[in-house]
Structures are given as structure tokens and as C-alpha cells.
Design a protein that fits this description.
This protein has four helices and eight strands; from the N terminus they run βββββαααβββα. It has about 150 residues and is α+β, with helices and mostly antiparallel strands.
């Protein structure tokens, strides 16, 4: 997959070696995402939409940038960005994606009563009481209450 880009290039992070943000025809793509209004309660795959908005990423760089700049609102958006970025065959993207996922708990710490591992690794907890868990490639979203129940069963 190729993207039309101009010679202008910025970075998505403070470190100049990290993910670039490309501009197309002189217009910055920012994090490469845009909100899309929903006309229903689910997307084409039958997944529930979060507050009527799904993130649509222009390219894998935008999806990765979304993960790095995630605001803690919805782990569904993070999972969508991860899956979109994984579709890229770009080795750089794949390597950076792992790093970005590992750093989510540092930027958005879990609640104190939720450890880093409850049957599977816990990567992110959002403001809505949901958690992104699982091994890379088999992530899922569960409620924080469910995680707490699992802790008490052990």
C-alpha cells in the first residue's frame, strides 16, 4: 500500500527517530484519524460503536500515533488502531507497535487494585471501566469489574 506524500515531514513524538506524520498535498494528516458519524448502533462488523463515533485511520502511521497520544477514553479505539496498524506489512510499524502497546500502562496507569496480569496481560484501562487485555494478536476488551471478580476467584 502506498501513500502520496510531500517532502514535508514531522514527527509524532519528541524523539526525531519515532513515527513520522506525513502531509499530503500540503495538508497535515495529524494523527491520521478522523471521526465518522454513525447512523446506527454498530459498525459493518456488528461491533458496538462507542458514543456513535468510530475512529478511521488514514494510514498505519496515524493509527500508531493515535496509540501514542491516546487520551484514556476508549480502549475500543485503541484496539481498532492496533488492528489497523497490524494490517501493515511494514516491519518498522510492527516493531514500534509492540513498543507503543507496552508503554500504554506507563502513560495511563491501571487502577491500583488491578495488577498487570489477570490470566492475560492488561494493556490499558479506560475511563469507562473497560480493559484491553490479551497477548499481542489476540487482544480483547473486558470490564474492570470482571477483572476484579477473576482476582477474587484466585
Amino acid at each position: 500500500m502506498s501513500y502520496a506524500v510531500t517532502a514535508e515531514q514531522g514527527t509524532s513524538c519528541e524523539d526525531e527517530r519515532t513515527l513520522p506524520i506525513y502531509t499530503t498535498n500540503g495538508v497535515s494528516k495529524g494523527n491520521g484519524s478522523k471521526g465518522a458519524s454513525s447512523d446506527g448502533n454498530s459498525d459493518s462488523n456488528g461491533n458496538a460503536l462507542n458514543a456513535g463515533v468510530r475512529m478511521k485511520f488514514q494510514n498505519p502511521y496515524g493509527a500508531c500515533n493515535f496509540i501514542v497520544t491516546w487520551d484514556g477514553e476508549s480502549v475500543s479505539d485503541v484496539l481498532e488502531a492496533i488492528r489497523f496498524a497490524r494490517e501493515s506489512g511494514d516491519r518498522f510499524i510492527q516493531n514500534k507497535l509492540i513498543e507503543y502497546i507496552l508503554n500504554i500502562p506507563l502513560r495511563h496507569p491501571r487502577p491500583l487494585d488491578i495488577p498487570a496480569f489477570v490470566g492475560r496481560p492488561i494493556w490499558a484501562v479506560d475511563n469507562q471501566g473497560r480493559a484491553l487485555i490479551g497477548m499481542p494478536g489476540s487482544e480483547s476488551i473486558v470490564s474492570v469489574d470482571w477483572l476484579r471478580q477473576q482476582l477474587h476467584r484466585a
